[in-house]
Every structure is written in C-alpha cells, then in structure tokens.
C-alpha cells in the first residue's frame, strides 16, 4: 500500500498497544482478509506464519495482529488476539 490513512483512534490504539506503522503495513501486505460486521480485517495468524516463515523476516512478531479498515480503506484500529477464529459463512 502506497499511502495509508489512519484515524485518530487507530493512532491512539497503536501507541497504547505498541504497534508500529511498519507492522501495520506488513499486516496489510501479508495478512489474510476477512469481512466482518461491515469492516475489512487483515490479520496474521498461524496459517500465514507457516506459509511465510521462510520468506518474510520476523513474521512471527505479527502473529495475532489485526488491522481493521473501513470501506474507504482507512485504518480504524489495531489489536492483538491470537485466539480469534473467524468462520466464513457461505
């Protein structure tokens, strides 16, 4: 992503949770995309760790990191949750 826009809320949460801009960029680049409750969530889980372990340096530091983006592709918030399992409905 060339230019990422962040809400004030996202910047506050990133600071509180120790999430860097570089980590957000990497999650947006390598993370799985899930639509949930009208938002797009990018996340790096165990599946992505296994797939990218030999190709992306320090991918393990992103495990459980979620980046929530709205319909205008603005980052709304970030959080870590290693236990979250989303089920896609058909």
Automatic annotation (TrEMBL):
InterPro entries: DUF4258. Pfam families: DUF4258 (PF14076). This is DUF4258 domain-containing protein. It comes from Microvenator marinus.
């Amino acid at each position: 992503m060339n230019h990422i826009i962040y809400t004030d809320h996202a910047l506050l949460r990133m600071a509180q949770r120790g999430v860097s801009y570089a980590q957000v960029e990497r999650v947006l680049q390598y993370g799985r995309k899930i639509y949930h409750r009208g938002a797009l969530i990018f996340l790096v889980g165990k599946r992505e760790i296994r797939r990218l372990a030999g190709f992306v340096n320090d991918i393990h530091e992103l495990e459980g990191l979620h980046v929530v983006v709205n319909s205008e592709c603005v980052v709304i918030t970030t959080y870590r949750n290693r236990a979250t399992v989303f089920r896609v409905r058909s």
